[in-house]
What does this fold into?
Amino acid sequence: MAELTQTQELRENQDVLLEINNLTVVYKSDEEIVHAVNGISFQVGVKETIGLVGETGAGKTTTALSIMRLLPERTGFIEGGEILYNGMDLVTKPQNEMRMIRGSLISMIFQDPMTSLNPIMTVGDQIYESLEIHNTDNKTRQQLDERVNELLTLVGIQPRRKKEFPHQFSGGMKQRIVIAIALACEPQLLIADEPTTALDVTIQAQVLDLMRELKEKLDTSMIMITHDLGVVAETCDKVAIMYAGEIVERGSVEDIFEGKQHHPYTEGLFGAIPNLEEETDRLSPIDGLMPNPTDLPSGCKFHPRCKYCMDICREQVPPVYLEDGHMIACHLVVKED
Amino acid sequence: MEPLIRTVDLKKYFRVYGGMLHAVDGVDVVINQGQTLGVVGESGCGKSTLGRLVLRLLEPTGGQIFFEGKDIMAYDRKDMKQVRQQMQIIFQDPFSSLNPRMPVFDLIAEPLVMNRIYKTKAELTTKIYELMEMVGLADRYINTFPHEMDGGRRQRVGVARALALNPKFIVCDEPVSALDVSIQAQILNLLMDLQDELDLTYMFITHDLSVVKHISDEIGVMYLGQCVERANSKELFANPLHPYTKALLSAIPVPRLRKDVRHQIIRGELSDPIEPEPGCRFANRCDFCQEGCTGTNIPLKDQGNGHWVSCTLYQ
Amino acid sequence: MSKQADVQTATNIKRPKRKSQAKEIWRRMKKNRIAMVGLAIISIILLCTILADVIVSYDYSLEQNMDLRYAAPSGDHWFGCDNYGRDIFARVIHGTRNSLIMGIGAVVVGILLGGFFGSITGYFGGKLDTVIMRIMDVFNTIPFMLLALAIASALGPSLTNVLIALMISMVPYYTRVIRASILNVVGQDFIEAGKACGTPTRFIILKHVLPNAIGPVIVHATMSVGTMILSASAMSFLGMGIQPPAPEWGSMLNEGKDYMLYAPHLVIFPGLAIVLTALSVNLMGDGLRDALDPRLKD
It folds into this structure.
């Protein structure tokens, strides 16, 4: 109950760390334009974790890369909107300033721990390096070394193993090291892109546990990108469901998991997962496929796959229905009102 | 009734740096006609190796495999080719299991042509259209290359290839783990419908416990090359016995709000079973480890109800 | 046509016409302009080979005219004349045949033999792999030129023997390239998928392995055509290859190099011919590799 009031409070008294307004991102190549993110808006409060949920091609990772300003230079462009971090717009920041922000204020954890570590550097050196780059208050070598030990202890690895190379660690251990590097400079915002997808369930449980523990300890805000609603339920305060580059539903975890009204896509996602606690003879998959991002459908992007599709859905972009912080973009919900 | 497929003490060792890796170490599989056996385990537990051994795609180091009561280990290449028509496999990664240079027609035709099933091109074409319809693949895809299709459609091609020879038994090696959830459900439904229609028998290999519960009649849990627990699907989820199974079940993130979530975390990680000592291979991570867990191998023991477990807590 | 109609009425089911594989490759190739330029040049060169006697008679390329020694290019002698007063244009045209046979022939045979050994070693591995690769290593330790020279001198100087020498020196190289390329493909699931549905090994190699391994091989091949022409000319220069006065680009270069400073056309034209050939084969090879891969977007 205490937690519930806390989120409630936050909703009213928004202490906002990151605010994204109407962000639009495209990938351009000679022949085609991929509309990866189409005008999304959401906020991340201080100490808050927001889950970005969606399937392949929903635009989750593109959103994260836009915040980090790490979109591929020649093809990826932020076409519009703003990314306000503590009030400053990251979209217009020059790259050299972004370089200082990345790693110190905002860090990112990538999906595959096997490829995000340098195989020929000891793990200690890799953590040390990220500390050294952002060492603005001239800490001594010894102080930095101590911080490396501290970080390793934090993520549950014995500091004496810092002289070892990544291949000497198992998958779960490597992801812990990646987390340690991301946390090295005590960032205010951590973006985790499918941090546990490459891991086995028992190891996933360990890493999720660690992340929950760290969140309580460190006051870090977090954007958790995942396709797994189970992971969301366990780690997030707020959830945004993405489909074809848009946020179709957004709200607190309670809204998403226990709310009365949902976007048909959210319903579809829940129906498609086999339930461990109930007996179902048949899954109810969402018909059809993700739309082609170079040629998105008119009106509601989900209408070709929606079982409640109405005429209006084909023609008009659905209005946003908002109640008590729970946002749904669907004609159906508005009509019922 | 003789089960469709049965293995006795199936073993596969690989020579690696540091000794013999016991990838599969004495596993007995029994699957009755029309049933699905789910094989669950984490990466490195030998489940994929087991799937290939059962089909003799890999040559076992030891043990016997009976298909319809006949020992196929004694078969030569020609007999094996005959029996393999009855036993097929669906692969995990629909991106690497289809030859990128072949269009759908050629991909589905391969098993038919190579086993000389049809004499005329027209017969072959008819059969291919039939198979495509069966797996829900629209006619217009017949000349499409794999890279032009999404993961779900590619996996449908994989299923069509497996069905081409009218097999009785199909090993499904993580057929949905590379797919998005909504597509995953489509393929799972397809596999279940096909099973009803064609009276297929599956060995369903996966690391995803919710999927395995959904599709299996019986489930075997593997840990480091050995089967540690085997039971009816409902029974296993309702009443897991082995500490590893318990931990595995508790580790799944459930898409439902539970404020007091605390996973039962198991320490450490899997190691490779290179020259393992006799005894329980889970012992070093187990909270209930006691005397007798190490030193001697612990056999699977029936706890009644067809629930078998290999653990000293239940001997 | 009527046969197809029969089939259709008999079953009423027919696979929709797909553009044949070759047409499809040609269509993709056509989109690549640079590759088409390469193809055009190669075609012209090949035409020159075929029509050499129509363009200018062979005897004319051997005819010496001491009055015209080192004559600069003019209306009568387009490319000028060489140190014996022979018409360089005629010699370049007639040299095409010899040079192309050496360059392309050596590479083609190298690929065929290398492909055979490479497929076997790459696909089967094991002891066979070790044995064949160690033999190839032995060949590799002998410097390429030395090996070719040794073979040519053992067999006696002639066009065929130079060709044999070049081929043999190419085989270990291609075995290695093709083996590496095949090892990449063999690890993929569709090979196992082929085995699982009963495809015999020879078909697996021919239909699954080789088509997917061919890309890098084509690039290597086109790059070595130029090298082979030059190696062949070097052999001619050392007296192991084509015997003078038969025209061949390499030997023309070698003969002309002494007079390069005051009669540069002696080396410019045969040199250009070699460069053009090598370049066009390279361009075409690049395009061909892309056209053969259906995965590349068109």
User: Anything to note?
Assistant: Confidence is low (pLDDT under 50) at residues 1-11 of chain C. Residues 97-296 of chain C form a domain with the MetI-like fold fold (CATH 1.10.3720.10). Residues 88-124 of chain C form the longest helix (37 residues). The interface with chain A takes residues 297 of chain C (CB under 8 Å).
